[in-house]
Structure formats: structure tokens, C-alpha cells
Amino acid sequence: MNSSPRIILHLDMNAFFASVEQQHNPELRGKPIAVVGSAKRTVITTSSYEARAFGVKTGMNSWQAKQVCPELIFVVGDNRKYSHTSKEIVKLMKQFTPMVEVFSIDEAFLDITGSMKLYDSPENIAYLLKAQIRHHFGITCSIGIAPNKLLAKLASDMQKPDGLTVIKTDEIERRLERIPAKDLCGVGNKTARQLSLLGITTCGELGRFPTAILKKKFGIIGERLSLMGRGIDDSPVTPSEEADEVKTVGHSMTLERDIEERQEILKFLLQLSEMVGQRARRYSVWGKTVTLSIRYADFDTWAGKQVTLTRYINQSDDIYKSAVSILDTLVLTQPIRLLGVRLSNLRYESNQLPLFAEERKKLLLASAMDSVNDRYGGFTVTYGSLLDSESSKDKGSHVISPAWRPEGIRNIDVK
Question: CA dihedral in degrees (57, 61, 67, 73; nearest 10)?
Fold first, then answer.
């Protein structure tokens, strides 16, 4: 077993979006509520624990949720509210240690090894964090403490809501023996099904299973699975300022209604391309591969394709033209529910004025638009084709991606 003396804390906000809504609106407290992506596209983003008691789950349609919980109250999500609260909670966590890795908008890892001289025990830090979050934000969190990130995240799931679970080094083998392998972070449903075909259902069984067979079945991740089954994880807690360079810049949106008209699709592609381009330019990133992703109305079927260019780009119209060229090669079989645009194959390089006057003009215009939008909010200045009577910028549900971070290139502006 890994003898590293690290002490890792994983903090997971309880029913985060729903809890924030209940805190902001006292009339919702103690009631079953469900946060949805938009007023029309009522797919459950998250639900309060009062609603979960009736069986309301993330991903349900509104009519399904109402069937199991007739008293359910729908609340249209406010992503800016959630991202603001998340950033403030991160600031609070950094009062205990600078080693904070934001895992998602409602989760973070803290390496508190170096903080023991000030706080005596990891439990003291956990209780202080819980008390301060409750005091400042009126919401609760569950915390797991363990010798590594894998086990800390597993521990935080063991007692919800408002729980605290500690896994000590000498307890690891006993704790893991009967825990389902699918509960490990990184073991998805597909992998769990494949493991079950090998007779592996628990972490204990996974840890004892021959590594050679796992490697033959799963390739390079087979050895990693074996280590996970034994609770071994050497990955460091990496603060955002120390993280590796981002490999892609992208954005997607779930639409309030299914669309199939080409002009509507193009309008959203332009909007997405501008969002991606603006972030790429802000952080001096250029890319030469553009990917278009489409999810159809059945929400199970994906379509998509990528194109690799001969030159690096970060101008919104260049990204848009590439996305359209991909669209023109696809045969759409259903109305579209989600669209995504991504720029990859990146290089980091400061913007330099191009040699040709037309290119210089385009770069300076984009820079001026970015400056105004950074100061006054996204799409304050935008393309004329986005300025119709319904305002295209209000028609998409800007879903917060799991890749969201409170700062840097992954800090996506959300409405």
C-alpha cells in the first residue's frame, strides 16, 4: 500500500444548484424542487433532497418527475448565481490551504497535509469548512478525508447530505472489500458492465483480480483499475495555476427547443464560435482542428465530425466557417437538441499583427469587440445576424460543463 503521509480532503456540495436556489428564496426551503435548464426544456439538472426522497433524479423529463412527485416545484437554473457561489467557496477553502484543485463547480480536492500544524487534525479542518460554508452561504456539503484523492472522493459519497467520513490507511482494505467497483471515480457504467462479465463487482474483487488479465481486457487502463481496486492513487492535488496547459477550448449548449432549420442552426453555430474564439483570444491560444458535436432530440444519438486545417486559427469567423463546412458534410436524421463547437490541436502564442491590411483589420476589430464584451458582458457587441427579435443569446441553455473552473481558460461565462 502507498505509504505516502498525505492527507487529502474532498468536498462535495450537497444538491448544489437546488440548495443555492432554496437559500436565495426562503419560500422554497423544505420543499421538493427541481432545477431545470430553461423554462421550456424541462430536463432535471438537479433536485433537492426533499424531491429525491420521492425518486426525482437528474436527467428526468418534467412529466416523469411530476409523476413520482406531484408537488414538485420547477426552478429555472441561474448559472451565474451558481458559478459566483462556487468561486466564493473556493476562496474560503484557500484560507485553509493553497493546495486546492477544483474538480467541478460543486467539488474540490484539498491537500491539507501541510495544514496540520495549525489545525491539529483533519477533522478540525472539515468541521470548520462545513461551519463556514453553512454560515456564509446557508448550504451544506459532504466531506471525505483519506490518504489520496481516489479514496477521499469515495469517502465523501458515503454520508450524504452533510456528512463527514474518514478513511485511515489501516482501514483501506477492510473498507474496500464490499464497496461496489462502480462507486470508484473513473469506473463508468460501461466499464462496470465489462468488469461484471469477469465476475468483478466489488473493489475487493477488483484488487485481487490478476492484473495481466485486466490489461489484456482493458489495455493501458487495466493496471490503473487494479490499483484503484486496492485504493492506490498517487495523483497530486494540482491548483489551477499549476495545471497542465489546456488541450481544447470548446463550448456546447442545450437548446430550449429542438431545431432543424438550417438558418437557426447556423445562428447557434455563430454564437458558439464567438464564445470559443473569444476565450481562445483572451488566453492567446490558437488551434488548427475544429470539431462540431450534435446531439439529436432523442438525447441518445450523437453526430459529429472534425476537420484539421493547414493553419492555426482563433478568429471567430474562421472557427464558424470550419464548423459550417463540417455541418455541410452531415446528413441530419433528427431535429437537434444540443450543439457544440471545439477548437483543439492547440498552440499558445501571443497575438501579433498580421502582415496584410485586411487581416490586421479583422484582428483589431475582434480585439475591440472582446474588450467591450469583457467589460460589459458577453454579446454586448456581436454580429448583426445574432440580433433578431428573440435575441439568439437568450435561446440556448448554457450548461455548466464538468470542465468548468473558477479561473483561467476553463472559466466559461455563463448566463
Answer: 80
Angle at 413 between CA 368 and CA 289, to 5 degrees: 75
Q: Which residues contact 125 (CB under 8 A, 6 or more apart)?
A: 9, 96, 110, 112, 115, 119
Question: Could you give the C-alpha distances from 365 to 282, 350, 368, 387, in angstroms and in order?
Answer: 14, 17, 5, 18
Residue whose C-alpha is closest to residue 83's, from 173, 160, 20, 23: 20
Distance in angstroms (rounded) separating the CA atoms of residues 317 and 363: 11
Task: For strands 141-146 and 249-259, give the pairing.
Answer: unpaired
CB 346 within 8 A of CB 287: yes
How high is the pLDDT of residue 170? 94
For CA atoms 313, 318, 319, 325, the dihedral sign is negative
Residues 6 or more apart in contact with residue 377 via CB below 8 angstroms: 413
pLDDT of residue 264: 92
- For residue 170, the 8-state DSSP code is G
How much is the pLDDT for 298? 77
Residues 131 and 156: their CA atoms lie apart, in Å, by 16
**171 a catalytic residue:** no
H or E stretch at 227: helix 221-229
Helix or strand run (H / E) with residue 74: strand 73-76
User: What pLDDT sits at residue 286?
Assistant: 92
Per-residue pLDDT at 389? 40
Q: Which of 21, 50, 101, 107 is an active site residue?
A: 107
Tell me which residue of 45, 11, 259 sits closest to 141, measured CA to CA: 11
Task: Report the pLDDT value the prediction gives residue 352, as an integer from 0 to 100.
Answer: 57
pLDDT at res. 323 = 96
Q: Going from the N-terminus, what domains does the chain have, and what CATH number goes with each?
A: 6-169 (3.30.70.270), 177-229 (1.10.150.20), 244-397 (3.30.1490.100)
Cell digits of residue 164: 463527514
C-alpha cell at 66: 411530476
Query: Running along the chain, 415 residues long, what does each successive block of 10 average in pLDDT?
Result: 75 96 96 82 85 93 92 91 94 96 94 93 97 97 97 96 96 95 92 95 96 94 95 92 74 85 93 91 90 85 88 92 94 90 86 57 59 51 50 49 60 55
Whether the Cβ atoms of residue 260 and residue 322 lie closer than 8 Å to each other = no
